[in-house]
Amino acid sequence: MTVRKTGGRADPELVFGVLGILLLAVFPLSAHEYSSITRFKYLQMLFLTGICVMTAAVFLRSWEKQFCWKSLPRLLCVLYAAWVALSAFFGSYAGLVDAEGARVVLTGAVRYEGLITQVCYFLLFLVFSLSRPHRGLVLGTCAAAMAVYAAVVLCQYAGWNVLDLFPKGRSTYTNYEFQGTIGNIDMVSGYLTLMIPLVLIPWILGQGSPLLLISALVGVMLETLMGVQSGLLAVAVLSAVLISAALVREDVRLRAGIALAGTACCFALRSVIGLPWLDGTQSVTFLWNPRALLWLAAAGAAGAAGGFFRKKKTGVLRPRTVTLVWGMLLAAVILLVWLCPLGGEGSMLWEVREILRGRSSDSFGSWRWGVWRHTLAVSRESLLFGTGPDMFFYAMQDYLQETGNVLGEHFDNPHNLYLAILAGSGLPALLLYLALVFSVIRHCFRSRDVFVRAAGMSVFLYSVQGFFSFSICLVSPMAWTIFGMACAGEEEKPGGLIHDHCS
């Protein structure tokens, strides 16, 4: 649904495009010293949410007769929000107060992920699900913002304390886990996971300039330099999606081949760059690595295949066939890892093999396996309403003391988005969230709108990396904004008891 400019009133597409820029381009680039960056982003999120809600209220009267309010994703979001609110009152740690007598669950124990922040997420989703933003405005600005972000990181690699982000005496060489204007590289990876498909998919589908491709590849390059496994997993999944698209649609083969070739070149370049904090070199330098030749060969093969099979019916497969092939490949990889001793002891592949053989250890995955196991134990004690939003820190500390278990690292959340929802707000909240994500992705795959499809891919990849990451106000406001944008397009085949949009 799009409301055009009438009677001197502003066009919602343009207005919501500006709001989208504030959340997706200005918000991630807003700078503050790392020592208090989370609180800075939290306050900024409150301000931007207020602006978005007030702006949406201005258009409500003009939407009364033109807008279809029936929306399954929106309904699921409201139900999920309601249950999270209930968990803030009935959770096992919901009554805990701080030294000043304020309820901790309102702001959260550590990371400002309490009820107030959760309400902001829900409001951002609802606001941006009401009207599509101006696509060109949002995509172009997001692409430019990602390039600027990468430039800030590269300046930090060169030893410059850009924008005074590092406290005095600190730098990337002493604390490489902090990069750019978002901070922790796990959060930076989440930002890139949202932005890369958002700007790349429209170009793949034939809309937008090559600058979108260049910006997406800049994001991929930054992912390779940071080396965050969840981010690299998202890049791998996106590459698989591009390959699948090329097998199903001949009209995207050339662009998909170019994008895959560019991605392989990014990995080739990373393999010859030595980073002191990851590779043990004295400075950022170039090192010869034979793996670069393999990546370059892959790039050449992808580009050649895209050009050769351009607009040819040869090799066009049905989506179900492609899904079956990927399923078989995945099963073969799992079987190979289970049977063969790949990787040395302590490596990721070795740990996966030990888990598949039933010989897991809490220390696997930098103690993630252990905190996941203990989180399930904590969740069983309050399965209906959980502990309350962002009360995991207290619950886990009490559990470890009572049981005598020990984790080798400090955890204030499970480092798993889904387990965090389960522990914080209970099983009903987790089921509602999963239903919400599924309905959003389903809506996007049925949409004819290229921007909506791109937003749907961002939702999908964010959900994939969520298995190894967590929600925080440094990135989640952008995620919920894109969740809302993904629901604001027209559906190709509306149907069902409650369909996404009226025709």
Report on the architecture of this protein.
The structure is a single chain. The chain has 503 residues and is mostly helical. Helices cover 62% and strands 2% of the residues. It contains 20 helices and 4 strands. It has helices at residues 12-29, 37-63, 72-90, 104-107, 115-128, 135-157, 185-204, 210-226, 229-248, 253-271, 276-279, 291-308, 319-339, 348-356, 368-380, 392-403, 417-425, 427-446, 450-465, 476-486, and strands spanning 178-179, 183-184, 273-274, 285-286. Strands 1-2 form a two-stranded antiparallel sheet. The protein has a two-stranded antiparallel sheet with strand order 3-4. Helix 7 packs antiparallel against helix 8 and helix 17 packs across helix 18 (427-446). It starts with 11 loop residues before the first helix and ends in a 17-residue tail after the last helix. Residues 1-8 and 491-503 have low confidence and may be disordered.
Question: Key terms for this structure?
Answer:
503 residues, disordered N terminus, mainly alpha, two-stranded antiparallel ribbon
Low-confidence stretches: 1-8, 491-503
Radius of gyration: 23 Å
Overall average pLDDT: 90
Distance between the termini: 9 Å
Overall strand count: 4
Principal-axes geometry comes out as globular
- Percentage of residues in DSSP E strands: under 5%
Q: Would you list the SSEs in sequence order as H and E?
A: HHHHHHEEHHHHEHEHHHHHHHHH
